[in-house]
Amino acid sequence: MRLVVVGAAGRMGRMLIKAVSEIEGCRLAGAIEREGSPVLGQDAGVLAGLPPLGVAVTDDPLPVFAAADGVLDFTAPSATTGFAALAAQARIVHVIGTTGLGEDDFTRLEAAARHARIVQSGNMSLGVNLLAGLVRKAAATLGDDWDIDILEMHHRMKVDAPSGTALLLGEAAAQGRRVALKERSVRVRDGHTGARVPGDIGFATLRGGSVVGEHTVYFATQGERLELTHRSEDRGIFARGAVKAALWAFDKKPGYYTMTDVLDLSE
What we know:
Layout: E1 2-6, H1 11-22, E2 27-32, H2 44-47, E3 57-58, H3 61-66, E4 70-73, H4 77-90, E5 93-96, H5 103-112, E6 117-120, H6 126-141, E7 147-154, H7 164-177, H8 181-184, E8 185-186, E9 201-207, E10 213-221, E11 224-232, H9 236-249, E12 255-257, H10 259-262
Parallel strand pairs: 1-2, 1-4, 2-3, 4-5, 5-6, 6-12, 7-9, 8-9
Antiparallel strand pairs: 7-10, 10-11
């Protein structure tokens, strides 16, 4: 499978290049960076700390997409929606690990999925998606007398909060409760807030140091507490998960998919 990495010079972009070069069944077909980037023209393999791969970094994605089978994208929302439109035009796979996407962004991605095979997730790791399945099951099993809070911590440079993974876990809890997360989520607690409203799903955010990612979902009721935790120790898990998602989607019909589909975790 011929795969393109966008945002090639970024931390995740370099890890994606490395993952593509290591995983059987795919090869690097292109590397994209923004106009004016100092790495334009460099060999993508060298950029990622590998031997030369014979793929030069470019800022012109359209011809690269046209000659590829899939795109791996951990960039920014505005860039991702633009790449989705190009992936739809080329009718290829678009794997999206970008976080911070808003409602308008998702609307544009769903439109692109009429022609592209889009796989989008707030987290590409196997462990996190298994955790989401456990959260969904626990939320469905435990009643509203069990409060749900999600605590996440990431490195000091992360720019969005709550994290995409925290929102993924919140959606899992909401699905288990058969409610809409946007109607029951509590993002901020400050001052005299009053007693907690039964059924709300709370979020708390920590930022500091070089933490790759830690997430804990708390289920608490009178006299007992259940904690489900995942800790990411290597960003490579996200890159490997993204490549696995692309390989899975290669022969699928156009549509909008998630890692739940890739890992066959749907109930």
